[in-house]
Here is the input.
Amino acid sequence: MTFTLILEQTFNGLQAGVTLFLVAAGLTLILGIMDFVFLAHGSQVMIGAYAAAAITLATGNFYLGVLLAIPVTFASGYLLEYLIIRHLYRRDHMEQVLATFGLILFFNEAIRVSFGPAALFSDLPPSLSGFVEILPATPYPAYRLGVIIVGLLCAVGIHLLVSRTRIGAMVRAGANNPEMTAALGINIKILFRFIFATGACLAGVAGMMLGPLTAVQPGMGEPLLILSLVVIIIGGIGSVRGAFVAAIIVGLVDTLGRVFLPAILRLFVEQATADGAGPALASMLVYILMAVVLIFRPTGLFPAKG
Amino acid sequence: MSGLAHFLTLASDGMKANRLFWLLIAGFAFFPIFTHFADLPFWNDVAMRIMLLGMAAMGLNLVLGYGGMVSFGHAAFIGIGAYCVGIGDFYGLTNGWAHMLLGIVVCGLMGLVIGYLALRTSGIYFIMITLAFAQMLFFLFVSLEQFGGDDGMSIDRAEFGFIDLYNPLRLYFLIWVTLALVGLGLMFIVHSRFGVTLRAIKSNESRIEAMGLEPLQFKITGYVISAVICGLAGVLFANWQEYVSPDIMHWTRSGELMIIIILGGLGTLAGPLLGAIVFLLLEESLPIMLDSVAPAYAENWMILFGPLLIMVVMFGRGGLVGLLAAQRQSKNNPKRTKAGQ
Here is the structure.
């Protein structure tokens, strides 16, 4: 029984981890290569979720919704970079914070105006709403398992793209030293627009997959944004590999901590104290983890520069 | 020169250099008379909010504007200050001066810990870490069920000795006096040896190190002072609101504080206060304006406010204080019209 619970929660943690990775993968490159503080990445998650939910509701087909929403998120990232972001690269961090904060307000409100403040719900197709036995007599929701598989496939794809292709070599060079990369004749502006749009697309995919699990509503991407910033700091800014490792760690620590920390505390202190302090400590766990990592490695686990 | 004379020279120089700030402070002193005769008591409330947010922004401005440290988590200190009132109240500590002292001590200690850890990093890392620490405290208070958790706790206004805060103007002037004192304190800090060093670190940290000074000490001290000022604002905020919830330290409030500073003018005494005035007036007037054009969308004023912020970043340099200075400069010297210091 306990083993089943641990296994189930480990899978939930993995699912949270791969979702986080999809958000953090693009963002770590945006922060690392262009030294650009992009806070509106959570809005890309929201745009992806809304695009998929709206198309699913209109066509009645979940797969069609996801398939059509992917180019929508790519286009939205591309347009955003072209219209606004590229004018802000040379500004200091604070102005970038301010402008992208303005973008968040705009996107949240625009979604609220066009779709209403209430959450959108779209049903899962029957093929995904069942359970799969991950071990004999241990059922696990098929959809969550699907999310884990898609997330891992995306991670493998990103890894191959970054480590095996010419574009990937440019991306790595850009993360390591953007000026030198540009001096070697690589059009870093086009490269970045591509990274930006791809990052928006990945965040959008995370949003689409989260849609049926959580409520699709304005501002839904912001908690994910903050957690993915923690992931990026732990992993090292600009490092895709670091983002993957950190995302899985953060996903597992957060999920398992919330479930098991109150029980573990109960072994050491009185039940009343444990029940009070357990949830509080669990919700702070990932931030404590981040602080500890920073004390020993101020540039994260896998620093891209240096 | 004797100490007192030196102090007075400094004070009068400071008054002259920061004329705009003291004009605004004087304006706030007379504002209740205006609202009384114009029969607009609601605007006293708006003015109190302006002063409170302005005070917190002035605290943040010490690290952001003068020290060049982009802290994205200062709302946490407002929250800690506010919870010092709430939790103090909960355990029977109803004296407002005690709340203030508690807020100063706790925010100072938290500022020391967070500053020490966060200032090991710089650049984007620093922004993200301050944000993460603020989130950590936010979730801590969300999960503390005995203090209301997500819903927060309502509190009685504290007892400030002979000052009865249930008389609205008493609270108004308590906030006003605190704001003026904070302004006076910041004026001296910025022009002191410490403040000059802090500003020098912003422009060239390695040079300060080469001069044999330890930049980290100055940065942490600045961080602690700014945390304490935000904490004071938080203590008063809780009394004004008669209610504390984690919402007071939501990360968007840290963003608001930054907006206020940049809107008004970075690294100036008057900037944050001016920024707070403009920010809250926009917040009050945009819905009214939208209501007259498209009543269905009056609630969605942020759809205008967001792009407005982006435009401020793209086209407005130096904030409102910079704009005013540029105008004065171009009057005196028509050739130099560039906005800036």
